[in-house]
Amino acid sequence: MKTSLWGRHVLPFILLLGLLAAATLAGDYALHRLNLVWVGRYLGIPGTLLIIASMGYSMRKRKYITSGNPKTLLKLHEFGAWLGSLMVLVHAGIHFNALLPWLATVAMAVNVVSGMVGKLLLERSRRHVQGQRDHFQLRGLSRSEVEQAVFWDAVTVDAMKQWRTVHIPIFLVFVVLALGHISSIFLFWGWV
Amino acid sequence: MSRFLKIILALNLAVLALLTFVYPHLMVSPGKLIAGHKLLETDCFACHAPLSGASATRCAACHKTADIGLLTTAGVAIAKPRTATPFHQQLISQDCMACHSDHAGVKRYHLQGNFNHALLAKASRDQCQSCHKKPKDSLHQQIDGNCLQCHTQQKWTPASFDHDKYFALDGDHNVACATCHARNDYSRYTCYGCHEHTLTNIRRKHIEEGVSKFDNCVECHRSANKHDIKGGKAEGQGERKKEHKEKD
């Protein structure tokens, strides 16, 4: 059982988080080595856009949008937010200038960790409701209808609900701090 | 999300917003300002125009163009100016940010010492020695001014001048510039600056070969090799033959 918990949940979690840290350091090092530090300065823009685009899943879940396969959108949410966060982390670099952007970066990092915990919990929930699949199939539902039903059940079990009450405030803090940083850039930066 | 949590969240964010306005140099400033701008640390809009960045007009509020390089912003004469001649007055436009930046975090990205000479008015653009010191090597110590003959205004090195295109400095010709370019005038040259070539022996040799025009040596000779004559031997001979025929 211990091996199972480690292999199925803890190890992938650590690997994904470690990969993010390693990719950030490698990206920052490569930009400095190739004399392309200026690229890092602008990576915050595509990174933020990618994070915003990955919010399609959240919109779909709250029925602000009705089209799109929720499972695919969740995959895109996980990947887009991870990659966008990587870009923002490279953008932040290891330069300590002002507090607000760093608070935003820390909030984003906490958000990423929280998101990964959510991914882990979802996987557990999904397995928990796996048993219901047979039940739905017995009711004569098609394969895609069963997939949808099991998916929504998985994301609405108690553990996921409790996680969401933590994840959403963390996300909101990140949004406000990031908006503060972006607003200050627009206010003081000369784009032309 | 519970109502209590929402209130806590809103209060925290309100405190952060307040801190941003009270301590902008800590909250949003991308690094320290240069020592001369220290007093402006909490007054972002002293230099920045809202939504359009640092503005030259705001720089000029303290740094009067006519005084730059001569007087400090307090009106005191600068004891040790960075350049022998003030040049900001000679700029075609007052675009401070084309060369200057501030904040430690921004200066990191700014290309230092990347002055675009095209920003200078034409009259002062070629007066290199007004701002630049002559290199101390033996070659440059022989030369005064006229830097653009050999260098561009984009890069000092590599020099754009290729002497071999005019005459290869090989063999006995690797000599002091003034041997051929009297008074360091690189628009002219003479081959009679050394003991080897005199007008008498050069005339004799060329007359023997049937060449009567030999006042511009590099027109035919581009190196110390006397057989390497411009246009090739056949052409040279052809020209010589033609000259002979004209004489006949």
Instruction: Report the biggest beta sheet of chain B as strand number plus sense, adding barrel if it closes.
Output: 2 strands, antiparallel
- Count up the helices of chain B: 9
Strand portion of chain A: under 5%
- What is the oligomeric state here? heterodimer
What are the segments of chain A in which pLDDT stays under 50 over at least 5 consecutive residues? none
State the secondary-structure class of chain B.
mainly alpha
What's the gyration radius of chain A in Å?
19 Å
How many separate helices of chain A?
A: 9
**Residue ranges of chain B: pLDDT <50 for 5 or more in a row?**
232-248
Beta strands of chain A, count: 0
Q: Which two chains have the most extensive interface, and how many residues on each?
A: A-B, 27 and 29 residues
- What is the overall silhouette of chain A? elongated
3D architecture notes:
- The complex is a heterodimer of chains A (about 190) and B (about 250).
- Chain A has helices at about 1-35, 35-40, 45-55, 55-60, 70-90, 100-130, 130-140, 145-155, 160-190.
- Chain A is built from nine helices and no strands.
- The longest helix of chain A is centred in the N-terminal third of the chain and has 32 residues, at about 1-35.
- Helix content of chain A is about 85%, strand content about 0%.
- Chain A is mostly helical and about 190 residues long.
- Chain A is elongated, with a radius of gyration of 19 Å.
- Chain B has about 250 residues and is mainly alpha-helical.
- In chain B, about 30% of the residues lie in helices and about 0% in strands.
- In chain B, strands 1-2 form a two-stranded antiparallel sheet.
- Mean pLDDT of chain B is about 85; it is low at about 230-248.
- The chains are: A mainly alpha (about 190), B mainly alpha (about 250).
